[in-house]
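Protocol step 4 of 6: structure prediction from sequence.
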Amino acid sequence: MNTTAPRRLIAHLDMDAFYASVELLRYPQLQGLPVVIGGSRRNPSATAPRSLDDFARLRDYAGRGVITTATYPARALGVHSGMGLMKAAALAPDAILLPMDFEAYRHHSRLFKAAVTAIAPVMEDRGIDEIYLDLTDVPGAQEAVDGDPLGGVRALAQRIKTAVREATGLSCSIGVTPNKLLSKISSDLDKPDGLTVLMHDEVPTRIWPLPVSRINGIGPKATERLAAMGLRTIGELAASPAHELVSAFGRHYGSWLHEAAHGRDDRPVVTWREPKSISRETTFERDLHPRDDRTQLGPIFTRLCEQLASDLVRKNYAGRTVGIKLRYDDFKIVTRSLTLPQPTRDAATIRLWAGRCLKTVPLNRRLRLLGVKMESLVPGDGQPTVTEPDAPYSLPLFDEV
């Protein structure tokens, strides 16, 4: 009898340029062209472009919006997610600019996740376009095929990719390794439409030559500090003594850097994670003044509260702590919060208490960003609406200025 424990197999699935790819389903004539998504939300009543000349171009954009995603031809021109659209216009002025359509993206997200979990049900949802899967016990994953001990998991990964394409018309990239850290790196090794299977003994040859920034959890600041220490590749990081990393970065992060560089990660695939908070925020195309632009800010503030309430209902939560976030034109960020006597997910109640928070912050500067948040979450069934507080407030709301 074979008592050998099954090989741990964790997959990371990442949809390829997800928002842009969904838009290309709507506009197939844009296939192969540089396309950027961002700047504003799609107006469902807007007239659909009929020819290439009808599409907005990046060179014509004016504002402070950022790129949400871009097609691979656009990325080849140097533009990328998070880049300001005005900066991107200097690099790719002829790129096509499309507004965002989150309803369409959420629809296709549900489709691909349903297709995947029909094959591999142990899924950790990491966002609208990426998931982790535990393939360890999925039938066929541990089988050898044509002398290849990993042939079964390769076939399973390809089956998952095919199911995603059949359900959505979109491609995805998959990395399969013994853990989440390596799978996250591996799913990006052969994009787009990639399939990478990598075991731990291949870490020195396939992972160590990569830059340290490819490890999820090593951001720009840590990358700069590591470079100053002469550690630019994952292999160089792996060769650095653990005590030196601990001395430079502290016990917790330094120890993690050492383990991550060696490809070690014991985290399980978590099928359910309780959220700590739910929030909604928006960055304005131009700075808005609480007094001069109150007719715009009031409805925006109300809509954010309504959207937050809708998110709470959809996810079946209520919250007891209401918070707001403001970013002024000097980039200073201010947050305030109030704790309610009872949890709520009622839009009007959230608007009322978020307004109370708003009255405790200075409203004498222009604003770049406005956000609302609910914390101290509880299951939402049967949660009552909260009555208006008695505490007096002296500063006005946008719509009362």
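Step 5 (inspection) to follow. The domain at 18-101 is CATH 3.40.1170.60 (MutS, DNA mismatch repair protein, domain I).
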